[in-house]
Known about the structure:
The protein is 37% helix and 13% strand. The protein is α+β, with helices and mostly antiparallel strands. The protein has two domains: 9-110, 2-Layer Sandwich (Zincin-like), CATH 3.30.2010; 133-170, no CATH class. It has a three-stranded mixed beta sheet. The protein is globular. The mean pLDDT is 87.
Amino acid sequence: MSQHPIVSQALRAxxxxxTYRLLEDAGNWFGIRxxxxxxxxxxxxxxxxxxxxxxxxxxxIRYNPALLESNPDRFLAETVAHEVAHLVAxxxxxxxxxxxxxxxxxxMRRYGAEPSRCHRYDLSAAQHRSLRQFRYxxxxxxxxxxxxxxxxxxxxxxxxxxxxxxxxxHGPRPAxxxx
Length: 179
């Protein structure tokens, strides 16, 4: 079992309260009922937070305790809003929206937070994991995918190039004339 940094009970309680308050605010603004997600403090690595969206209504928000403990004020103002905005945008607009698209950005601004895709925390205290990269290609170029996406492809998922819209294939791009 892996060890997670310990977050003080007071900071944990404040993070949970802020998460539920932001959900309640959004529910009032948009006249909708939002599910109360399970909140975990078990995320590691460089990610500050993660929202898992489930069609059944069972949602989970995971927070990185090391980044919360080392950046409490910024974390509460930025990361909590960031993850809650994902749940709200998904509930309002459905699964087809882009994770950090205009719908999500509008909600972030309504919370008074900068709609930034990535955080700018000092990561020296965070645990890092390095992922193996796998070479894939489309019609227009080569792509390096992480082992996570590679494994998803092995299980049947398909990824498409944003530029040429073709499915990615494993391996380097064939020399012209070999397609």
